[in-house]
Structures are given as C-alpha cells and as structure tokens.
Design brief:
single chain, alpha/beta, 7-stranded mixed beta sheet, two-stranded antiparallel sheet, 33% helix, globular
C-alpha cells in the first residue's frame, strides 16, 4: 500500500515553499466515502465587499424559497442558483449615524464585518471593532501557513479624513485585527502571489534572482515535484497537473500585466503591476483566492472590490459617470439604469469566482461545496444611505452544513452579525456573540 502523505505536505525549492491541493493520498481510503472521518476537507470562508449599495428592485428577488426567480442584477448567477442563498432583511444598525452625523460610506465599510459603530475623530485615534475574519483567524489561523488573506483593488489611505470627519482608515478597510488596527490589504496581484508562495527574507532574495531570469516558481520546485509524482496514483497526478497549470497561467498573466503597465503612456499614471483592464485585475485576485483555498494556504479571506464611496467609472458596460455620484440618483431613471449595469457587472465577476471554485474538485465535491462565500455591502439603497434590507449572498454549502438554493427573507432589522456568528461556528471558531448579534441565523442550517 502506498504510504500516505501528510495534509500539510509542501514542495520545496530554492526560495520557495509551495503548498499542495488536497490529494487522495493524503487521506485514509475510507475518508473518500465517509465525510465523518479525518481527511474531510476544511471549510473556507471569504467575505467580499462592494460599495454604494444596489438598485433594490433589480437585485432583490420578489418571491422566497427555492422557486424564486433571479432578478436582472443577479441573472449572471443563474447557473449557480443551486449553490447560493440570497438573504434579504439583514441590517447593520451600527452603520447608522447614531448621533454623529454624516459619514455613511465610512461606516458602511468599517461596520460591514465588525458590527461595531466606529469612532469619529479628527486625529489618529481610530476605533472600530475586530472583524469576523480576524476573530476566526485568531482561533484557527494557526492551522494554515497564512492565518488570513486580505485583498482589494484600490489601496486607499489610513490617514486623514475621507468621509464627513471619519478617518480614511474606515473607508479603506473591512478587516480589523484590533479595534484600532485595520489589516492591510494587498492590491497588486504579483505581491499577493508572492505572499502565497514566498518564504523568509533570504529565500525571497534567492527566489528573486531566479525569477529575474524568467524562471517559473514551478521550475524551482521541479525536482521535489518529480519525486512526489512517483508516489501518486492517476487521479492525484491529474490534480497536480491541473494545479500546476493554474499556477503557471496566473504567473504568465501577472507577467503580461506588469509588462503592459510599463509600456503605457506616462499620462495614464497606473500603479506598477496592476492590470490596466479592471476585469483582468478582478479575475486575477479571484484566481489567487481559489489557489489560496485549494492549497489550504489559508482558509479565511477578505476582498474589497471597491473602497467605501468608490467613484470608479465602468466604461466597459457603458457607464462613464462615477459609481458614488450615480448612487445619489434622486430617482433619475438614466442614473438608476447605469447603477443597475454596475451591479450586474460586479455580480458577473463574483459569478466567475464561484464557477472557479465549483470546477475545482475536492473530496467528494468541490471547493465551493466546502466554502462559505459572503458577498454584500452594509448599504442597501445608496440614494438614501440606508443600512437595512442589505444586499447579501451566501454561496457554498459550508462542508454540507448549509442548505443552498433559496431566497431567504429574515425578519426586518435582523443583524448581519447573526449570519457571522453562524459562519464562525462552521469555521471552528464559535462565539457566544459577535458585534451587535442577537443570536444565530438558523435559517441557513442544512
């Protein structure tokens, strides 16, 4: 009988340590037919934030249960309907003013994953709350090489004021390690890739010398990989080959993107290493999240597809006005139509991520089956700056613990934090309460 590999087996090379996807050889044979034994895939969680709310009638389904129809802004998820729950009725009460005036966008981002009202201050004395991803990372992050991974598309600032007296730190971050310490996000695909596959300082220097000569990370672990393949069966060899192909494809895309930036006219003023095309940037970040989960490099991630109050334009769908500007549409039909196009575009990109997870086999199912992906915002209607009836999707079955395929309408003013308490249970990081929670969201239970 072939010797089993440890779950945390790595390929090693000069300046590189490369995690592996879950293979059959890593688990007892009986675990392939029984989900109750050791070897069951871990549950991963990602929290994806988008700014400025949505056009509700085009986003929220009209009927509930499994027979609901996806509205226009969610149509890109039609093929994934059985893998998601649309949850309406949730609120982030602490994103409201509560006596300290304007600043709904800053509160939207800082409260999204914390459930804690931030402190408005003119100085550097910021105070929000510990976010759900970091609560999980503090309890189970030691089980993976990276306790958590934070990604975004725009850096933003942690100093100065960005929204009606609120610190820019609130607008630029959804992940908070402590109430006064946001967790910095990575926006450059190449740097995120190196974080996933890099080693210590000396290893980084060695690997940099090799990569300067256009060597792939796969070249650096080639000898170790060849030794490993001799131990593998046909199915595992296929998984390894598919995984290596994914890694190499991302390397090539990052290399092309970096090169493209170098030949852009100076007036473009694009940050080095960031793709000029928004869709390519988003896809690269989503692909890196898939790799992070596939290799069990981390089980916890956040991704900001826009900072709070983002005024990005979306010319690829015919929207040349700023997102935030349009969100204050005052019932102008043309502006409403443009916001709906943005909503649908962002949903399409989210669908790309879910499809990548779903087509990545793992155990008896796929990565999406073994994940919980929360996609949403803490602003419902951008025109009114409302923080109730939030647009929230929970995708994935959480390792079989979540029943999917429904539009679930919860009682009005149900805290979003209730969902997070239930997710923490499934992450192996249970808490009695979180943020402004009032209980668990049991309606998602399988």
């Amino acid at each position: 009988m072939t010797n089993l590999l440890k779950r945390r087996t790595f390929l090693k090379g000069i300046g590189t340590t490369m995690a592996l996807p879950l293979l059959e050889i890593m688990q007892p044979q009986q675990s392939l037919v029984s989900a109750a034994v050791a070897g069951k895939p871990p549950v991963r969680s990602a929290f994806i934030f988008f700014p400025n709310g949505v056009i509700g009638p085009s986003w929220m389904p009209k009927s509930t249960g499994k027979e609901y129809q996806l509205p226009k802004s969610l149509k890109p998820l039609e093929s994934l309907k059985s893998d998601i729950n649309v949850i309406s009725g949730l609120a982030q009460i602490n994103a409201r003013a509560l006596g300290d005036g304007a600043g709904d966008h800053a509160r939207c981002a800082s409260v999204f994953l914390t459930g804690v009202h931030p402190t408005k201050t003119s100085g550097a004395d910021i105070k929000a709350g510990v976010s759900v991803d970091q609560v999980a990372a503090q309890q189970v992050g030691h089980q993976t090489r990276l306790p958590s991974l934070e990604l975004g598309l725009v850096r933003g600032r942690n100093a100065g004021q960005c929204d009606s007296g609120y610190s820019c730190a609130y607008s630029s971050n959804i992940s908070w390690r402590t109430p006064s310490t946001p967790t910095a996000k990575e926006i450059v695909p190449k740097l995120a890739f190196e974080r996933l596959f890099g080693g210590g300082a000396e290893q980084e220097k060695q690997r940099a010398r090799h990569l300067k000569d256009r060597q792939s990370i796969l070249d650096l672990v080639k000898n170790d990989a060849n030794r490993l393949k001799k131990q593998l069966g046909k199915s595992d060899k296929r998984k390894i080959d598919e995984y290596f192909s994914s890694v190499r494809e991302i390397e090539l895309r990052i290399e092309r993107s970096t090169h493209e930036e170098k030949v852009k006219p100076p007036e473009m003023k694009l940050p080095d290493g960031i793709p000029s095309e928004l869709q390519e940037h988003i896809h690269l970040m989503y692909d890196l999240l898939v790799l992070a989960f596939q290799t069990d490099t981390t089980r916890i991630a956040t991704f900001m597809v826009g900072n709070a109050g983002s005024n990005r334009t979306y010319p690829m769908v015919g929207v040349n006005s700023g997102h935030h500007e349009l969100s204050h549409h005052r019932n102008d039909e043309k502006k409403i139509a443009n916001i709906q196009k943005i909503d649908e575009y962002l949903t399409t990109q989210f669908g790309y991520f879910l499809k990548r997870l779903k087509t990545t086999p793992e155990g008896d199912g796929n990565l999406l089956d073994n994940s919980m992906i929360c996609y949403g915002s803490a602003i419902g209607d951008g025109n009114r700056h409302s923080h109730h009836d939030l647009p929230v999707i929970l995708a994935g079955k959480g390792g079989g613990s979540i029943q999917t395929g429904s539009h679930i309408k919860v009682p009005s003013e149900t805290p979003l934090s209730n969902l997070f308490v239930s997710m923490l249970d499934r992450m192996g990081a249970p808490v009695n309460s979180f943020g402004d929670s009032t209980g668990r969201l049991k309606v998602i239970d399988s």
